[in-house]
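User: My collaborator sent over this chain with a note saying "see what the structure looks like." That's all I know about it. Can you take a look?
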Amino acid sequence: MQVIKCGQCETKNRVDEARLARSDAKCGKCGARLQADGADVAETKPVIVTDATFDREVMGITGRPVMLDCWAPWCAPCRMIGPIMDQLASESDGRYRIAKLNVDENPGTSSRYQIASIPTMLIFKDGKLIDRLIGAQPKQAIVERLRLATQFRASA
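Assistant: Without extra context I'll predict from the sequence alone. Here is the result:
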């Protein structure tokens, strides 16, 4: 679930990602169609990404980094990182986005970015891969990489 602020009446709405992806999410107060535009999204949980939604949910985000946690449910280190990803999403305040990709269910994206071991965390900014963390990392190390990513400016 995501919290989306209505562009018309500015009411905050809790919206299921599937409804948002199908563009049939509407404001509960005024009925206006809701859209997930970066600044209007108050994400408190990681966004679930699939091969089908990767371009929109990761590559299409501009102005802030996206950390993609590549994981699998059977992976013990991945399960250790999961609560850290939840904390980072709730602490993001719109500075960055946290997303999760199940590598078993999404082989296209996993292959595209050569995910050979998990957990792997990929950091994208403005549609470009700018950093990669492999293996379970302490929260402080992940926070530092996100901090550097927020300051990253691509050279022209």
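A starting point for your reply to your collaborator: The chain is about 30% helix and 25% strand.
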